[in-house]
Amino acid sequence: MGSVDYRKILEDCIHGRRLMEAIAYTCAARTYGKRNCSLAAAGFSLRKKRYSMRDSGGFKCDWDIRMALDAYDSCLRDEEQRPDVIVLVTGDGDFLDLMKKIRNRGSCVVEVVAFRSNVNRALRSFASSFLDLESDPKYLNMWVRKNI
Q1: Which of 36, 94, 122, 129 is most buried (most C-beta within 10 Å)?
Q2: What pLDDT digit, counting tens, does each position of 24-54 carry?
Q3: CA angle at residue 88 from 142 to 28, to 5 degrees?
């Protein structure tokens, strides 16, 4: 069993560039407590949202629109405040239109970070670069549970 090492992911997303901001869009649910603490400790600013219940008993936080607006708005900033690169840590193909719109503006490069098995192929192909979290075990904190 393992957990994601958000600090290593953020370091590799930056890879020598100046970080302007790192935002994690997350749920304000108790079950997200450990993940939220790990994200904050890694240097992410947290944007939390109440969840909505699904009929199945699960819950979700719909962040896609807010993430897209924030990413696009950052490309509209004055040159000194505008990032050169936007890194989307998602495999959701719904972000393909956002990437196309940003690329057409020509103001920002869009990179994608995700698990290859969970990323939309078109999103991966259209990204300026793709970091596969499955390609290197350093992105996972692994531990072994011993049977006693």
Answers
A1: 36
A2: 998 887 777 888 899 999 999 999 888 777 7
A3: 70
